[in-house]
Structures are given as C-alpha cells and as structure tokens.
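INPUT
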Amino acid sequence: MPPSRQLMPPNPNFGAATKQFLMAMPISQHFGFDVTDVGPGRFEITQPFRQELSYREGVFQAGPIGTLADMAAACASATMLPEGWIASTADYTVKLLEPAIGERLVIRGRIVRFGRTLSVAAADVFAVNGSDEVLCATALVTVRNLAPALPAGEQVELPVAHGGRRALSSS
Amino acid sequence: MPPSRQLMPPNPNFGAATKQFLMAMPISQHFGFDVTDVGPGRFEITQPFRQELSYREGVFQAGPIGTLADMAAACASATMLPEGWIASTADYTVKLLEPAIGERLVIRGRIVRFGRTLSVAAADVFAVNGSDEVLCATALVTVRNLAPALPAGEQVELPVAHGGRRALSSS
Amino acid sequence: MPPSRQLMPPNPNFGAATKQFLMAMPISQHFGFDVTDVGPGRFEITQPFRQELSYREGVFQAGPIGTLADMAAACASATMLPEGWIASTADYTVKLLEPAIGERLVIRGRIVRFGRTLSVAAADVFAVNGSDEVLCATALVTVRNLAPALPAGEQVELPVAHGGRRALSSS
Amino acid sequence: MPPSRQLMPPNPNFGAATKQFLMAMPISQHFGFDVTDVGPGRFEITQPFRQELSYREGVFQAGPIGTLADMAAACASATMLPEGWIASTADYTVKLLEPAIGERLVIRGRIVRFGRTLSVAAADVFAVNGSDEVLCATALVTVRNLAPALPAGEQVELPVAHGGRRALSSS
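OUTPUT
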C-alpha cells in the first residue's frame, strides 16, 4: 500500500505534537505504552503485555488490539495536520490474523491518503517475542480532521493549499 | 436488521455460560461492566464511565467503544453455541456516530446470521445520561465458532443438525 | 439498529430527487433495477437476476451485492439532503451471509445517523424466490454530503440548523 | 503491510488455475478486464473504462471498484490453495480515496495472511491516465477456503501441513 509520497508535515513540531495529543488521553496513561517511532505520515506504538488487556494469560484481547491500531493509524494521519488540529476517528475495521501472544505488541500506523476533512490510515499489529515478530492484526481507519477551537463536532476545511482531494504533498 | 427467527440455543444454560465466558477474561474484570440482559442471540452490557476508558473527561474513547461492541456482538453469537464452544472474533468494524458522552454506555449485541464455522453479529452502543440514550456507535462483527478442546486455531464443524449454511433455527 | 426518529427531509421532493440521482448513473441503467420504496431515511431497490451480475448460474456475485447495498444505503441517506446536494460514498463494509440465490434481490437501505459532513447508513440484502426471503448480506456505509455546485471533492457544511453532530431531525 | 514470506503455492499451476476460476464467472466476461500479473499471493487485474461501470462520464462508480478489489484480493489468496479449492468472499471493506477518473483501473491484490479456513487479503486500486497512477481505493477482504466437491456452504480443513493458524509458508 503505497503511502502518499513526499509527505511534508505543515507543523514542524508534528512529532512532539502528535505524541502529546495521544499521551494526554487518560486511556493512554492507563495502557502504559511507549511511542517508539514518529515520522511524516507514520507512527509506532509499543505496548508491553498487561493482564488488564488480556483475553487469557499471555494473550492480548481483540479490543486493545483494535484500540492500539486505531491510535497508531489516527496518529499517523495526525502528523500531517496543522498546529492545533486533531484527528478524530470516524470508523475502524480490524482483521485479527493470529492469536496475539507476546511480551509486547508493536503497532505501526501509516497514512494511506490525507484529505482535507477526512483521511484514511492503516495499522499493522505485531506480537513480539524476543526477536520474533508475528503479524497478528491489520486495520483500516478513517479519521476526521478537526480544528480544535470549534465546538465538538463542528468541522472546517483545512486551511492549506493543495489540489482538491489530492493527498497533501506540500504546505 | 431482522435477526434469525426462532433462535433456540442448543445449550440450555446459554445465558450463564456466555456470561461466564466473558467475565473470565481479565480485561472484563478491569473494565468493570455488568451483563444486563441475555437472550437467544442477544447480549447486553452496561459499562459505567471510567477515566481509564476515556479520551478526555466524560468522553469514552473509540477503543473501549469498539471493545465493548465486539464483546456484546461476539457474546450474542456465543449464546447459540453448544456447551463448551467459544466465539473468537475474526474481525470487527466500528462506526463512531456521536461523541460518547455519558454516565454509562449500554451496548446491545445481536446475532445477524449464525453459521457453522463463522457467524456475523452486530452491536449498537448507546451513551446514557439519566433517561436519555444517544446512539453513539454501531458495529458489525464476524466470529469464528471454536470447539474448546482443540489446540488454538484448530477449527471443527459444529456437530448440530441444520440445513447447510442456513441460520441454526433448531437443535 | 434504531434509525433516527422523526426524520423530516428538508427537500419536499426527496423521493423523486433521490431516485433521479441514482437512475442518472450509467451503471444503474446497466443493472436494470427498480426503486421499489422510498421514505424519509429509507430506500429500497429490487434487482432481477441477470447473468452479467452472477458468479455462476443463478447466484449473484459478491460485487453486485455490495454495489446494490452501497446504493441503497447511500440513497437512504440522500433522502435527508437539501435540494441539489448529493451523497458520495466514503467507504462500505459488506458481510456476505448466504449464497445469493434468487430470482431477484431486494435491498433495503436505511439511515443510521445523519450528520452534516458525514452520514452512516446500512443496508440488508435479501435473496427472493417466490415469497421466500433470505437475508444474504448486510452492509454499513459511510457517505459524504456534498454540495453540487462545488468542484469535485470540495466539501461544505450543510446549511441547516441543527444541534452540533446530532442527527438532523428538523429543517 | 508485510505479506507472508516464502509463499509456496501447493498447486504448481496456481496462476492458470486462479485466472481460470475468475474468468469462468459470467460477471468477469461482462466487465471485460485482463489479468495482468499473477504470482504467489498476488494477483493484478486491469480494467478499461466502460460506461456501464461508471457513476458519470469518465468516473468509475464505487460498486465496480469494490467488485474489482474483492476479486483481486480473493484471487491473490486463491493462488495459495490446493488444486480444486476455491476462495469465497466472507466480507470486504472498501475505502474510496479519490474520484476514480481514468482510462483504466489497475487493481493489485495481495495476501495478508493465509489460513486454513479463513484468509485475509488486501487490494489497492489505481486510476491510470497515461503513465500517471493515482491510488483511488484500498480494501481488506476476508475469504473462506472451500473444497470444491462439497455441497455449497460445507467447509473442510485444508489438507496441508503447516503450523496451526500460522501463515502457510511451505507446502
């Protein structure tokens, strides 16, 4: 799935801003994950095994897998937002591929298409044991791009110059 | 969405069995929800607001919403399984419709089609404040029907008599 | 799945307008279906069996099933649009439940949540033989609400008065 | 999305067999596409613009886009089946990213995870004009692996040696 090329985040502090956006959520504090990579249009989370996230001993449950996939994908998309904008999930589809048995999960999100009001992103979830990585889930996520100053649910065009619905390739 | 008519669970203790299946998961203990209704092909969960499940104060985050929708739908399907069988999620798609602001969520799962190896179920998620219910998310879930005695991932035909892929309508 | 109550289409000619929107597409002429019911937030299509839409003799292929489900759901949502606005599919998820063997398909779309920029709708697909109806597929669809005068892909707020992201229940 | 490594199709004639499976469907004859690449776990279709598949002049409609994505993904998965087995779609999710304006569509399917009873595959859809390719849709597809000799809807284990639900990496 070829990501949009030449992604140039309009916010020079996109990495710190996106990480801050995610880490400010109470649920993130509870999960106890780390952000292990951020780049233009990509975002990686590493989640240690925790019993509270499990189906049974040693196995992550489907819900936290989807939660983390949504977060990594939405944050991958959020890296391309102007300062102060946020990404709000409209929907996510998660395919569970293997039992998620591992010391930790590594979740890699990436933009598929960045738009003005809506963006689409994807995430792959790997169960990791030592140096062994198994792809245990994959997800597609649609996010709304929301300006922060507006009342909840209001929506505005992104104030950036780009061609129609084409992927934002320059600021 | 018309559920299969005349659903007759093959396990006379389907209610207790399905509830036990869900409540035995460590994640369920952590969420702290109640099972507030169970019937043939349906399953309802009530989740009080908890900060650990929130996006910001008072608002449930998308991940727990999907987690609960998956659980209610998978358990609705599990009510139709023979004793000892379990439902294992293959995928779920969640559409977030409104900000999930509420004292609690009520999640209503129902079978859409019960099959031998695969079933499809749905769930609606309501944000509740006093007597006000707002539909804040809807989900479709595909589950595998797994026999418990087999090694993880093995799959067997349901040992029940019914017509091909038609919904199980009698035991 | 409770549809929004009290749906009051802002366009008094919503039925004719939505039907015209669908029937003007070249693909609709090719499929050769009929619109057999339209109401506020709902839209029904009846599709006779045609070999060009089949997987093998007598069985509709998955693609046309999804095509019709998307159309019925998007048109159900379009019934709530102001005059001249159109619904444009952002995504659809189709669950295939039974082999679609029938003289015809009846596809029933309904709004799940009507919003300003995005709406969610659903569709159930029935394979019909004589008086026998079998639910053979179900779908969830997200649509964008687009003003017609704008260049392709541009998006504007619906010029209607309603409370935030709540479903439009009055004009 | 890393495909399973070392895919070794158990059927040495997987390319011809998968192409034959697709081309034998009446709908394929109607669409008039070509299979332009086949390999272990991948399958590419090229579809010329046809008015019958359009939303308006020059623009492919969402339904045929989903149809082709489903076909390419299901066939990518089918390349890994033993002789005589077929892939039957259980569900598909399609995200529409850009208006599908082009002389033709190129649809690239690939296996994400090959399983015994269920497999997951993906497809990207490109609108092509001259040498310009625009990613206009992406899809995830779940397929059932069915033995051909069984009555419709019956399901059997794949008679291949591999480790549990792990991706088939050797025959």
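end of record. Chain A touches chain B at residues 24-27, 30, 51-57, 61-64, 66-68, 70-71, 89-96, 99, 152-153 (CB under 8 Å).
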